[in-house]
Amino acid sequence: MELEVRRAICGSVLLGSRSQVGCETLESSELCNCNGHARKCRFNLELYKLSGRVSGGVCIECRHDTTGRHCHYCREGFYKDPAKQITHKKACKHTPAADTFQTTCSTSSLA
């Protein structure tokens, strides 16, 4: 699912969908490609500028154990099933061994 973000921008303030004097208007819809894992996104002016004015969307509240700007990574403790596209609801599978790993290293030597 792609969410459209149509906004006029004055600095870093989003003002709505109509142009105003002194504001830069996004000519085309900015798409927040959340890979079907989020229902909301926000516009980030800095990311928009860094992308060469191509994309500034950031997905909010990624679901289905995904994370990242576009919900395109599996969250910690999960891995991407190579048989599924990232757009699949069950693309990220739980790593059973992740629950048993130590988070620190032992400094004692083996004798």
Give an overview of the whole structure.
- The protein is mostly beta strands.
- It has a three-stranded antiparallel beta sheet with strand order 3-2-4, with no helix packed on it. Strands 1-5 form a two-stranded antiparallel sheet. A two-stranded antiparallel ribbon has the order 6-7.
- The termini are far apart.
- The protein is 5% helix and 30% strand.
- The protein has one helix and eleven strands, in the order E-E-E-E-E-E-H-E-E-E-E-E.
- Keywords: Disulfide bond, Glycoprotein, Laminin EGF-like domain, Repeat, Signal.
- InterPro entries: Laminin/Netrin_ECM (IPR050440), LE_dom (IPR002049), LMN_ATRN_NET-like_EGF (IPR056863).
- This is Laminin EGF-like domain-containing protein.
SSE arrangement:
Blueprint lengths: L1 E4 L2 E3 L2 E2 L9 E2 L4 E4 L6 E4 L1 H6 L6 E4 L5 E2 L5 E2 L3 E3 L11 E3 L17
Antiparallel strand pairs: 1-5, 2-3, 2-4, 6-7, 8-9, 10-11
Helicity level, as a percent range? Answer: under 10%
Which structural class matches the secondary elements?
A: mainly beta
- Rg of Cα set: 20 Å
- Number of continuous helical runs: 1
Determine the mean pLDDT: 75
How much strand? 25-35%
| Envelope shape | extended
In total, the number of strands is 11
Unreliable residue stretches: 1-30
Topology as a string of helices (H) and strands (E):
EEEEEEHEEEEE
Strand neighbour order, sheet with most strands: 3-2-4
Distance between the termini: 56 Å
Sheet having the most strands? 3 strands, antiparallel
InterPro entries: Laminin/Netrin_ECM, LE_dom, LMN_ATRN_NET-like_EGF
GO cellular component, one term: basement membrane
Organism: Culex pipiens pipiens (Northern house mosquito)
Keywords: Disulfide bond, Glycoprotein, Laminin EGF-like domain, Repeat, Signal
